[in-house]
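Methods — Computational structure assignment.
A single polypeptide chain was analysed. Its primary sequence is given first, followed by the predicted tertiary structure written as structure tokens.
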Amino acid sequence: MNTLKGQTLEIVQEEFANKILQIQGVGGFILVRNNGQLLASKADMTIDPQTLAAMMILSSQDCKTLQSTMGFSRYHYLMVTQDKIGKLYVFPIQNHLLGVIHRYPDHDSMFVKKMKQFIHELDS
């Protein structure tokens, strides 16, 4: 049985899902390792989570390539628009990627701020 500080992995995943889904504007999420392993997903999507995970990995790799080529510092998030799901924000977290579906059609800087705060609390 997988445990994390005495809790089962399933309980930790459920707590994570409950917290992130309470953030205003979150329409769903997907959490993957950098190697593409799907860890958690909660969304009413018409797209396969594995396909979405692959898109997140490839987009993240493109960002890292641009970052090193142009001499930019680490990217904080990227936004991908996909017809079937709308706006997907992808946030790098250590060796993971967190994809968050934004419910509203426009870019929302307050939404991004709330997500970055959520991620910061995870790292603390």
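Note: Helices lie at 9-21, 49-70, 109-123.
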